[in-house]
Amino acid sequence: MKVLGVLGGMGPAATVAFLAQVQALTPAQGDADHIRVLMDMNPQVPDRNTRPGEAEAELAAMALRLKAAGADILAMPCNTAHAQKAGIEAAGLPFIDMIVETVAVASATGATRIGILATPGGEALYRQALTDAGLEPVLMQGEARTGFMDCVYAVKRGDVGTAQRAAMQALARGLIDQGAGSVIAGCTEVPLLLAQADVSVPLVDSAEILARVCVDHCLS
Predict the structure, then answer these.
(1) pLDDT score recorded for residue 169
(2) For this structure, is 151 an active site residue?
(3) Looking at 78, 151, 214, 218, which residue is catalytic?
(4) 187 a catalytic residue
């Protein structure tokens, strides 16, 4: 069984939810069947959108600390920060790329037009990855982009109430109305506000996908 190293804290609630999914998705009869996880919960990582160079330096340091602590494989439940993955990979451990894994699942839904719920940085990563896969990204437009970030920051301050859930549902419906045949929850705060039952097309949850891949890799 491999030891999983998690670069977390971006944001804290999303990281905790991701770890809960890793636990829930692990086939186990008792404590000893679960994966050993080493986590650096670091909410002080510089802003990935506005200070990318500083963010990459901090992520690189986190990866090295996790390696030194005994991690065999690394994962990071933050889509936006995958733009700085080179710093993480420099540690020399396998790194599970949640953008790659999520696009593979989105492609398997059979939809050719894929909606993206993500920060500007995460959206850019998914837009490129979907285009490279021969799929058409469907993007939020105008005020929806600001509204999405309002929802993300609400989750970060602990607000996952009815108003925020309704706002995220409306954003997802907007992508579907533009022709999206499935929707990527491309920010790990999204599934804290939006569930499959809330949308009429497949919801591709990047955090759940990453958790499943982590379990598979650590138990293989």
Answers:
(1) 98
(2) no
(3) 78
(4) yes
Report the predicted TM-score, pTM, of the whole model to 2 decimal places: 0.96
HEC sequence for 116-143: EECCHHHHHHHHHHHHHCCCEEECCCCH
Q: Which of 151, 187, 214, 218 is catalytic?
A: 187
Distance, CA of 106 to CA of 92 (rounded, Å): 29
Low-confidence stretches of the chain (pLDDT < 50) are none
Q: What is the pLDDT of residue 50?
A: 86
Question: In what side-by-side order are the strands of the sheet with 113-117?
Answer: 136-138, 113-117, 182-185, 203-205
Instruction: Count CA atoms closer than 13 A to 116's CA, side-chain side.
Output: 28
φ, ψ of residue 113 to 5 degrees: the values are -115, 120
Cα 188 from chain centre: 4
204: CB partners within 8 A, 6+ apart = 102, 105, 106, 109, 114, 182, 183, 184, 185
